[in-house]
Amino acid sequence: MKTHTQVAVIGGGVVGASVLYHLTKGGWKDVMLIERSELTSGSTWHAAGGMHTLNGDPNVARLQQYTINLYKEIEAVSGQSCGMHVTGGLNLAGTRERLDWLKMAKARGRYLGMNLEIISIDEAAKMYPFIDKKHFVGAMFDPVEGHLDPWGVTNAYVKCAVMAGAEVNRFTRVIDLRPRPDGSWEVATEKGAVIAEHVVNCGGLWAREVGRMVGIELPVLAMEHHYLITEDIPGVIDPKVDKFHVIDFEGEIYMRQEGGGMLIGTYEQASTPWSERETPWDFDQSLLPNDLDRIAPSLETAFEHFPELGKVGIRKVVNGPFTFAPDGNPLVGPIKGLRNFWVACGVMAGFSQGGGVGLALSNWMIDGDPGFDIWGMDVARFGDWATLAYTNAKVRENYSRRFRIRFPNEELPAARPLRTTPIYDRLIAENAVFGEYCSLENPLWFAPKGAPAREDVTFRRSNAHEHVGAECRAVRTSVGMTEIANYGKIEVEGPRAAEFLSHVMANKLPPVGKLALTPMLNERGRLIGDFTIGRYEEDKFLLVCSYAAETYYMRWFKQRMPSEGVHVRAASMDYPGLSIAGPKSRELLQAVTRDDVSNEKFPFLSFRRMDVGMIPALVGRVTFTGDLGYEIWVRPEYQRALYDLLLKEGASLGLKQFGMRALLCMRLEKSFGTWFREYRPIYGPYEAGLGRFVDLKKNDFVGRDAAAREKEEGGKLRLQTFAVDALDADAFGDEPIWRNGKVVGWVTSGGYGHTVNQSLALGYIPKELADATDGFEIEIIGERRPAKRLDAPIFDPQGLRMRS
Ligand SMILES: Cc1cc2nc3c(=O)[nH]c(=O)nc-3n(C[C@H](O)[C@H](O)[C@H](O)COP(=O)(O)OP(=O)(O)OC[C@H]3O[C@@H](n4cnc5c(N)ncnc54)[C@H](O)[C@@H]3O)c2cc1C
Question: What are the distances in angstroms from CA 564 to CA 14, 494, 568?
Answer without folding.
Answer: 42, 9, 11
